[in-house]
Write a structure and sequence with these properties.
Elements (H helix, E strand, L loop, with lengths): L2 E5 L3 H17 L3 E5 L5 H15 L5 E4 L5 H12 L3 E6 L12 H9 L4 E5 L1
Helix pairs in contact: 3-4
Length: 121
């Protein structure tokens, strides 16, 4: 059983990561961080090695390198690890934008094999 979160260098991605760390620590279960797969692997490894080292004192954490389809990667990882929770970040939207949830977030909410916690900045 794990907590799964995507790693994005955006304010909503960072808030999702903070929330996922808190959830994993409080539940006493491992955290799996999935990269977005859109950047070169060497660049991702350097960045993820830094935050894995930083988080190691707080929670058992490992990194899965994504394929570029973050929604698919999160769903696949949640399924394969028997995730208890997926954490995603959402940004604030205009009144019209609130009617339309991002396609990736909507897909995760609909297809996730476990509960999804959406946090906003």
């Amino acid at each position: 059983m794990t907590i799964v979160v995507g790693h994005l260098a955006t304010p909503e991605g960072q808030e999702a990561l903070r929330t996922a760390v808190t959830e994993a620590r409080e539940r006493g279960i491992p955290l799996v961080v999935v990269t977005n797969g859109k950047r070169p692997l060497d660049e991702c490894r350097a960045e993820t090695d830094e935050f894995v080292t930083r988080l190691a004192d707080e929670v058992d954490v490992r990194v899965e390198y994504g394929t570029g389809d973050l929604a698919e990667d999160l769903i696949r990882t949640a399924t394969s690890t028997g995730a208890a929770l997926i954490v995603i970040g959402l940004r604030k939207r205009s009144p019209v934008g609130k009617l339309i949830l991002g396609a990736g977030a909507q897909r995760i909410l609909v297809e996730a094999p476990c509960p999804v916690l959406a946090v906003k900045v």
